[in-house]
Amino acid sequence: MWLRLKKILDRFLETLVAASMAVLTIDVTWQVITRFILKSPSDWTEELATNLMIWVGLLGAAVALNKREHLGID
User: Fold this and answer.
1) Cα(27)–Cα(47) distance, rounded to whole angstroms?
2) Contact assessment for residue 41 and residue 35, using Cβ atoms and an 8 Å cutoff
3) How far out from the chain centre does Cα 66 lie?
4) How far apart are alpha carbons 34 and 48 in whole angstroms?
5) Where are the alpha helices (DSSP H) in 1-74?
6) pLDDT digit string, tens, across residues 53-69
7) Which residue among 7, 42, 55, 60 is least crowded, i.e. fewest CB within 10 A of its CB?
């Protein structure tokens, strides 16, 4: 029973990280469009990008630890 619950939570966390990265990509793209093309930068996009980057880093590290992998730079 616990193993099944752990698998469900692991899958949820991986999905949450992937969705957060997708939202982060869309957010930064919108920020670039509003800043350079529309010449009227959005106020909220930088705040959202900062918070999403922090959460993606923290939750991504948890996913990597669960898979017994190491975050590193080549």
Assistant:
1) 10
2) yes
3) 17
4) 15
5) 2-32, 45-66
6) 999 999 999 999 899 88
7) 7
